[in-house]
């Protein structure tokens, strides 16, 4: 994310998988009787204890949603393919707000469910689910989704706009319009099939499928075939001018600008070409681009930030012009944040420090402002040195501390270990951990292995200790 204040397959329900699940659910006579227990209602993040759940691992989300921009109502069915990681008597999904569920099934059979607290959808399948078995959960629901407006973290989730809606889900918005295991360490592939009145455009993560029109309604399909954390899923529905191109390497590049936004002549082309240029340049620094397409969406959404939604960031046009360094930030996140995602939100500097450093590198490469100069200016100008970069606290995950001091820590590391090791790290860290989950501890160990040095006190000073580090 970068905020205003700073700127400044369709679900392949293979018959086999389904029947295996049913078989497991009914149990087989030979094995010792399993002890079925409930999955945990949270995934264990200290900042967001209710987010995510335990007892299963999602492989794929199939979201089918019809949207009426007149009423802002949706009518949807989300089907989830998951694998039990324990013998499950029941399990939770995260699902919040006023949407009404009309049907819920597990492996094709109606399942009992209750809704508990702000976001727990507690599901009891007709029979227990054996550890290791695949199962399919299908939830049909309807209503008008409501965004989240967190006093500390701002707006996320389903946001109504003048001509449609935009869904931005970091950190806690996904559950406002689909049932989800809303934790960064349960990545899954996605298909989003969205039906809207003909004339409107739908954009989402990944690659577009065929578009079909029937009786005044058009259905768009978008597929993300690489693992994606739910906080990085995205939808944009409205009046958009879409530009298609490729990067120099031939990667499909789809950008869009909301028609209501006052643009300079040719801005659609410039936005598309700058995106291609930045992705190409960042690939030379960070290794092969991790997804099968790229792009960006300039939207009139009014949230006050840009967000690194996977493969295709969303830029709120009221925040900033879509200039190269902002693109470098959100596209840099495709490696740092999207392909590599922290297990816990306390480690978000691994996203924001690297994304901010991407801006600094962009300024050096394209605007002749040396990184060291940006570092010195930031170091001299930073007023607030309280707080821990690698554990800023729940309400401070989007604070300047995480961004600026995160990037400063990287530049300080570069000065300490030298350019050769530093740029090796910039390529190898995202390559070795591609599509995975990471922690600050892992990062420190990685750099120490790479350099054969004990950097414990260096990282202690820059990441864990409040106060201005001496240079
Ligand atoms: Zn960011």
From TrEMBL:
Tell me any Pfam family this protein matches.
Answer: Peptidase_M1
Instruction: Give start and end of each Aminopeptidase N-like N-terminal domain.
Output: 60-230
**Cofactors (names):** Zn(2+)
Instruction: Specify the Peptidase M1 membrane alanine aminopeptidase domain's residue ranges.
Output: 325-462
Taxonomically, the superkingdom here is Bacteria
- Entry's InterPro entries? Aminopeptidase_N-like_N, Aminopeptidase_N-like_N_sf, Peptidase_M1, Peptidase_M1_aminopeptidases, Peptidase_M1_dom, Peptidase_M4/M1_CTD_sf
Q: Which residues form the signal peptide?
A: 1-24
Q: Which Gene3D superfamilies match?
A: Neutral Protease Domain 2, tricorn interacting facor f3 domain
Query: What EC number(s) does its UniProt record assign?
Result: 3.4.11.2
Q: Which UniProt keywords apply?
A: Aminopeptidase, Hydrolase, Metal-binding, Metalloprotease, Protease, Signal, Zinc
Recall the GO molecular function terms of this protein's record: aminopeptidase activity
Reaction catalysed?
A: Release of an N-terminal amino acid, Xaa-|-Yaa- from a peptide, amide or arylamide. Xaa is preferably Ala, but may be most amino acids including Pro (slow action). When a terminal hydrophobic residue is followed by a prolyl residue, the two may be released as an intact Xaa-Pro dipeptide
Family from the record: Belongs to the peptidase M1 family.
Protein name per Swiss-Prot or TrEMBL: Aminopeptidase N
Q: What is the lineage of its organism?
A: Bacteria, Bacillati, Actinomycetota, Actinomycetes, Pseudonocardiales
């Amino acid at each position: 994310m970068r905020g205003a204040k700073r700127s400044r397959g369709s679900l392949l329900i293979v018959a086999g998988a389904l029947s295996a699940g049913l078989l497991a659910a009914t149990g087989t006579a030979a094995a010792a009787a399993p002890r079925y227990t409930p999955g945990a209602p949270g995934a264990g993040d200290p900042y967001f204890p209710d987010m995510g759940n335990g007892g299963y691992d999602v492989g794929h989300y199939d979201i089918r949603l019809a949207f009426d921009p007149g009423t802002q109502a949706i009518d949807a069915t989300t089907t989830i393919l998951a694998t039990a990681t324990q013998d499950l008597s029941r399990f939770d999904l995260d699902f919040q707000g006023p949407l009404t569920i009309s049907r819920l099934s597990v492996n094709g059979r109606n399942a009992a469910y209750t809704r508990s607290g702000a976001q727990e959808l507690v599901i009891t399948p007709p029979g227990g689910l054996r550890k290791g078995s695949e199962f399919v959960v299908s939830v049909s629901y309807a209503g008008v989704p409501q965004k989240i407006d967190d006093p500390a973290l701002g707006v996320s989730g389903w946001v109504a706009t003048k001509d449609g809606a935009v869904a931005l889900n970091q950190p806690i918005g996904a559950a406002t319009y689909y049932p989800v295991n809303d934790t960064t360490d349960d990545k899954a592939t996605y298909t989003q099939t969205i039906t809207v009145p003909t004339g409107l455009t739908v954009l989402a993560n990944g690659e577009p499928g065929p578009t079909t029109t029937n009786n005044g309604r058009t259905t768009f399909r978008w597929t993300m075939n690489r693992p994606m954390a739910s906080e990085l899923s995205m939808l944009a529905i409205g009046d958009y001018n879409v530009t298609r191109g490729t990067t120099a390497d031939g990667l499909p590049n789809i950008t869009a600008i909301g028609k209501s936004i006052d643009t300079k002549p040719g801005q659609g082309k410039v936005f598309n070409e700058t995106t291609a240029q930045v992705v190409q340049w960042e690939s030379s620094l960070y290794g092969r681009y991790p997804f099968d397409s790229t792009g960006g969406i300039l939207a009139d959404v009014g949230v006050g930030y840009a967000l690194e939604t996977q493969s295709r960031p969303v830029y709120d046009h009221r925040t900033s012009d879509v200039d190269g360094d902002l693109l470098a930030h959100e596209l840099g996140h495709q490696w740092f944040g999207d392909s590599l995602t922290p297990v816990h939100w306390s480690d978000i500097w691994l996203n924001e420090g690297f994304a901010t450093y991407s801006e600094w590198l962009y300024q050096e490469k394209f605007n002749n402002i040396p990184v060291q100069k940006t570092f010195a200016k930031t170091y001299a100008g930073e007023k607030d040195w309280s707080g821990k970069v690698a554990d800023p606290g729940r309400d401070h995950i989007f604070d300047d501390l995480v961004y600026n001091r995160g990037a400063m820590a990287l530049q300080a590391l570069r000065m300490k270990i030298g350019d050769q090791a530093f740029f090796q790290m910039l390529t190898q860290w995202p390559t070795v951990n591609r599509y995975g989950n990471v922690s600050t501890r892992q990062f420190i160990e990685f750099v120490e292995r790479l350099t054969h040095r004990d950097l414990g006190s260096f990282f202690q000073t820059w990441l864990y200790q409040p106060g201005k580090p001496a240079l």
